[in-house]
Specification:
- With 123 residues, the protein is mainly beta.
- It has one helix spanning 102-106, and strands spanning 4-7, 10-13, 18-24, 33-39, 46-51, 58-60, 68-73, 78-83, 92-99, 112-113, 117-122.
- The strands form 2 sheets. Strands 2, 4, 5, 6, 9, 10 and 11 form a 7-stranded mixed sheet that branches.
- It is globular and about 40 Å long.
Length: 123
């Protein structure tokens, strides 16, 4: 069982930056691929970025490539999403996710989900 708690969301102007954090419980954190998803109002949840269990591989959606960066610290059971050059279309609830493989996350699925944190980008 893995419990995920996100933090770091908020209101930011276009062009600004935010860093989301996800704290994971459990001694098996380092065996899970971790990812971030988002859901904007009236839209389906979409995959944003994910990182393999070791941190050696990542996958990112084209719309945030070059602006968002995922990282993890297995010693602290933490995963992060650094978001730069934010745009109003990045406004969404962002969810942390954990799965047994990077492929599962990239496919839009996950074994565990956090409760989400709101990110609002004003124009």
């Amino acid at each position: 069982q893995v419990q995920l708690v996100e933090s770091g969301g908020g209101l930011v102007q276009a062009g600004g930056s935010l860093r989301l954090s996800c704290a994971a419980s459990g001694r098996t954190f380092s065996t899970y691929a971790m990812g971030w998803f988002r859901q904007a109002p009236g839209k389906e949840r979409e995959f944003v970025e994910a990182i393999s269990a070791s941190g050696g591989s990542t996958s990112v959606v084209d719309s945030v490539n070059g602006r968002f960066t995922i990282s993890r610290d297995n010693a602290k059971n933490m995963v992060y999403l650094q978001m730069n050059s934010l745009k109003p279309e990045d406004t969404a609830v962002y969810y942390c996710a954990a799965a047994m493989s990077l492929r599962t996350l990239v496919g839009g699925n996950s074994n565990y989900w956090g409760q989400g944190t709101q990110v609002t980008v004003s124009s």
